[in-house]
Amino acid sequence: MYKIPASAFKLTTSFSAAKDQNMKKCFTSMRISVDGQSYPHFPNKENGESVKLARKVFGLPAMSTIEFTQDEMKVHDQKDQIVESEKIATFQRVQFGVIRKMGFGGRVPLLTCAMTMAIVTEQQNYYVINSSFEPFNALVALFKAQGVSVEDPFDITSLPSNEKRDVYFNKDYEDKIKGTNYPISYGSNYAIKGF
Predict the structure, then answer these.
(1) Could you report the per-residue pLDDT of 121-142, keeping only the tens digit for each?
(2) Domain range for residue 103?
(3) Which of 30, 60, 73, 76 shows its CA 20 to 30 Å from the CA of 42?
(4) CA distances (Å), 96 to each of 50, 136, 147, in order?
(5) Which residues contact 125 (CB under 8 A, 6 or more apart)?
(6) Cα–Cα separations (whole angstroms), residue 117 to 54, 102, 182
(7) Is residue 47 part of a domain?
């Protein structure tokens, strides 16, 4: 199993304007697009305008996206411009994992789980964190179809549903991270689910 370097778990801000560069050094919050679907499903139409207004008032950049087509990965910046692309066939391996981060439920702090994806190529590694586990199955199928080695040390394959992720992963998270560089929890300023 690939051992992700400890430096990849260095805390980065979810609101960085340079996510497309940060993701090459450490886990970075990115929206994932696969099979024409974007994850997480955020913002919803009913709160989309308030999110845009909050971003403008607080000077926060828009989300960046990592898009997967049938044979290519495309990294979009906050202006939705493609700033980097890589053929999936060049991936040496992809390791999916789980990271616990601080979140809030009704103003109560809690540990919530997010999906990590470490993409290893000969030239560059990419580290992505996403609050949804929903794209996992589509991504695994896509990568395997391209002959890419896929690792799932947290057994995401058996996750009953995205909604049950916290109960499913928190029960033995600390045992699963032994011998790895995954932290007990990933400090975060993610007060809004979906970032």
Answers:
(1) 999 999 999 999 999 999 999 9
(2) 7-176
(3) 73
(4) 32, 8, 16
(5) 8, 24, 118, 119
(6) 28, 19, 12
(7) yes
